[in-house]
Amino acid sequence: QVTLVESGGGSVQAGGSLRLSCVASGRTFTSYAMGWFRRALGMERDFVAKLVWSNNVTYYGVSVLGRFTISRDNAKNAVYLQMNDLKSEDTGVYFCAGQNAGLTWSDWGQGTRVTVSS
């Protein structure tokens, strides 16, 4: 079991930046990758970014490519999401998630809310 705790959400004006953090504890060695998802009000949960532990390869959703950056801190068992040039459509609850070797997103944090005002 992996426990994920997000932080760093808040309110920002369009064009601004936020940095989300996710700290993992527990059986973190079972994780293949860590990622971020978001859910806007009334919408499905969307993929935002992913980082593979073994080779540091990253993946991004089309809507955030070039604006968001996922990174890691091994010593802290943490992943981060740097979000720049935020837009109103980035508003939502952001979730940190762990992907296992079977490529299932099996572990989820409680979410942190991001509100971007135009």
Q: What descriptive keywords fit this protein?
A:
seven-stranded mixed sheet; four-stranded antiparallel sheet; 118 residues; mainly beta; 11 strands
Quick structural gist:
The protein is mainly beta and 118 residues long. The protein contains no helices and 11 strands. Strands 2, 4, 5, 6, 9, 10 and 11 form a 7-stranded mixed sheet that branches. Strands 1-3-8-7 form a 4-stranded antiparallel sheet, with no helix packed on it.
Strand content: over 45%
Give the mean pLDDT: 94
The span between the termini is 40 Å
Order of helices and strands: EEEEEEEEEEE
- Which term fits the overall shape? globular
In DSSP terms (H or I, runs of 4 or more residues), the helix count works out at 0
Radius of gyration: 13 Å
What is the SS-derived class?
A: mainly beta
Question: Biggest sheet: strands, sense, closure?
Answer: 7 strands, mixed
Q: What kind of assembly state do the chains in view correspond to?
A: single chain
Proportion in helices: under 10%
Which spans have pLDDT < 50 for at least 5 consecutive residues?
Answer: none
Question: How many distinct beta strands?
Answer: 11
